[in-house]
TrEMBL record:
Name of the molecule in the record: CGL160/ATPI domain-containing protein
PANTHER family for this protein: NF-KAPPA-B INHIBITOR-LIKE PROTEIN-RELATED (PTHR34118), PROTEIN CONSERVED ONLY IN THE GREEN LINEAGE 160, CHLOROPLASTIC (PTHR34118:SF6)
UniProt topology in membrane: Multi-pass membrane protein
Cited InterPro entries: CGL160/ATPI_dom
Domain CGL160/ATPI intervals: 23-145
Species of provenance: Aegilops tauschii subsp. strangulata
Cellular localisation: Membrane
Listed GO CC annotations: membrane
Keywords: Membrane, Transmembrane, Transmembrane helix
The UniProt record lists the keyword ATP-binding: no
């Protein structure tokens, strides 16, 4: 039994992975989450060292949004594999698409209310969005990793 797993609107719109078991799907989701967390961690440290703590905090907020988005993407992939009616919903009914909007709204309200009244640090929008899109780098890395054959495993 092959379970199709589609990543719509991701790196390749026509890319389709065929994973033979649900354990493979779980391993793929776990690898993507760990890869996103690792790449994001490097980004947060780089932003802190190279720029300011405000930039690093903005990147961190985007990274958290990225991890939430990736978790919700995994849930929608699970619903595709199960063949439930939830898989038939259109793009408008997918709450994961609201994550970037929630980040922008959080940026707006944070800087408009919390910064002037309570003196919290100012957040920046561009590092927040860059932090959000770290999941794309993880997916691209995973796609390259799976498409390049292992060097040491040549069968004759």
């Amino acid at each position: 039994l092959k379970v199709p797993v589609f990543f719509k609107n991701e790196i390749c719109t026509n890319l389709c992975y065929f994973i033979t078991d649900t354990e493979g799907v779980l391993q793929l989701k776990e690898r993507l989450q760990l890869l996103t967390l690792g790449i994001g961690g490097v980004g947060v440290v780089s932003a802190y060292v190279s720029y300011t703590p405000e930039i690093a905090a903005s990147f961190s907020a985007g990274l958290i949004g990225s991890l939430v988005y990736l978790r919700m993407l995994g849930t929608s992939v699970d619903s595709l594999a199960g063949g439930t009616k939830a898989a038939a919903k259109g793009a408008a009914a997918q709450p994961r698409l609201l994550i970037p909007m929630v980040l922008v709204m959080m940026y707006n309200r944070w800087n408009a209310i919390l910064v002037p009244e309570y003196g919290f640090m100012h957040l920046e929008l561009i590092p927040m969005l860059v932090g959000f899109f770290t999941y794309k780098i993880a997916m691209f890395t995973q796609a390259i990793q799976e498409s390049v054959p292992d060097v040491g495993n040549h069968e004759v």
